[in-house]
Amino acid sequence: VFPRPGPITTRLAVSIDPPAPGFLGRTVRFASTSLTFEVRRNKPELISPATPTPRELKPLSDIDDQAGLRYLIPVIQFHRRNPKMGDINPASVIREALAKLLVFYYPLAGRIKEGPGRKLTVDCTGEGVLFIEAEADVTLEQFGKTLHPPFPCMEKLICDVPGSNSVIGSPLVQIQVTHLLCGGFIFTSRIYHTVSDGTGMAQFLMALGEMARGAVTPSVLPVWKRELLCARDPPLVTFPHPEYDDVGKTGDNIMTINEMADKSFFFGPIEMAALRRFVPEHLKSCTTFEVLTACLWRCRTIALELSPEKDTRLMFFVNARGKFNPPIPIGYYGNCIVLPCVVARAKDICNKPLGFALELVMKAKSRVNEEYVRSTADLMAVKGRPHYKTDSTYIVSNLTRVALNKVNFGWGEAIYAGLPKDDQDIPGVFSDYMPSVNDNGESGIIVIIGLPIPTMEKFVKELKIMLH
């Protein structure tokens, strides 16, 4: 298994300074470090499909089995108590629904094998997925008026059984349901990225909610068809893919200092209007994602104080389902994502107007079409499924449209759903965009940023300049 780059020694979610008034007071969210609680876990269980399922081997696609996707995606969902559900145990409801759903998603109850050329295949053994029921001596209210990552005590809320963190031979889905003192509960799930992207994961969790509410079949039936995204014969790489170029080890990919700050930043209508003041006339058609990504890349690059001539890289995941003709079938839950990359010198990102970075983002995004995806799949086959490069890199994942917050197990939709914190294994490289609501009830985007504490201070300062 391709290892994700090394760990850091300590991670802190700390308040470096009180948030400044004005835009930044609305925007930055400092996690409380004082909240601690105990969690009592029941013994881990394996939940198998409710009825017998086919025993077969299902190869993953060449987009699925690239080295950079061989890890678990963690998602956390907070659910309030629902008086209408009385004393019904949500863990029992979800456990039963999971067994029924796995009849449809039976590959997820199997185990991954690695073959020649590091090619991955799912062995549909029906062994099941990991499930833990737990209790925590904390209430939802103690997490704050509005829920924003990073969340405290995450290691107690996530199903993490020793020996289950290798993509080869481990349960592909890992779930924990934690009961809270207030009658609400926290649902956390981890799914191996090799079998599903964010859209596919949301599809699975939405279906789990439907089954928990009494559905006999999911409203969207799962589609495997991984052969749709396998390399051509012979493979033909038709695009440059700097995201996989070997740039050598510069040491910039892992921030190994002892103290990191994880913070979430809220961008609502007021913040986005402030950022759009910097958009030049010929780029006014840019999307919220494009202008926000350009802004964060610029502020982060300035804060890192890189050498002016150094190349800095921006990558972002693009859901390519809508780029195919004929289209990728509805219900396809495998990876249908690519990671276009733009490269620019640090001095250009820092010193030129925002429009410079914004135009690079827009052009990279516009390049993604069916041929780009096929070129990526072919590159995987030709180059042995390389890991995307993280040196001097900022990677953005937009989860605002996958609707994780719409998952409903019968207690109502989640009041927060998304990633719980910055990536532990590659700290400070990833940012995830998720739908959220601020203290004023405004809808917007929450972004998790992880940086060393001194760098975070500079980042906040630069962001404040752009928002005022």
Automatic annotation (TrEMBL):
<dbReference type="InterPro" id="IPR050898">
    <property type="entry name" value="Plant_acyltransferase"/>
</dbReference>
<keyword id="KW-0808">Transferase</keyword>
<comment type="similarity">
    <text>Belongs to the plant acyltransferase family.</text>
</comment>
<dbReference type="GO" id="GO:0016740">
    <property type="term" value="F:transferase activity"/>
</dbReference>
<dbReference type="Pfam" id="PF02458">
    <property type="entry name" value="Transferase"/>
</dbReference>
<protein>
    <recommendedName>
        <fullName>Benzyl alcohol O-benzoyltransferase</fullName>
    </recommendedName>
</protein>
<dbReference type="InterPro" id="IPR023213">
    <property type="entry name" value="CAT-like_dom_sf"/>
</dbReference>
